[in-house]
Inverse folding.
């Protein structure tokens, strides 16, 4: 069952940050810095938006340098 859309201030802040460059891929850490959200708020919001088909997500291994 699909979740209902989330219309919280935090989700609006996240979407506003992403709309500044709508075609750019961003890492979660970068979104934390852009939005000022806490990880416990940001990552669930990202998951909800992915489940709703509004975002694409991709997990990547960290660069080993």
């Amino acid at each position: 069952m699909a979740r209902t859309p989330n219309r919280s201030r935090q989700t609006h802040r996240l979407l506003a940050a992403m709309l500044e460059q709508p075609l750019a891929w961003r890492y979660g850490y970068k979104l934390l810095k852009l939005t000022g959200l806490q990880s416990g708020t940001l990552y669930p919001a990202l998951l909800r938006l992915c489940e709703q088909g509004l975002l694409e997500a991709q997990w990547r291994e960290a660069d080993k340098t």
Observations:
- The chain has a mean pLDDT of 87.
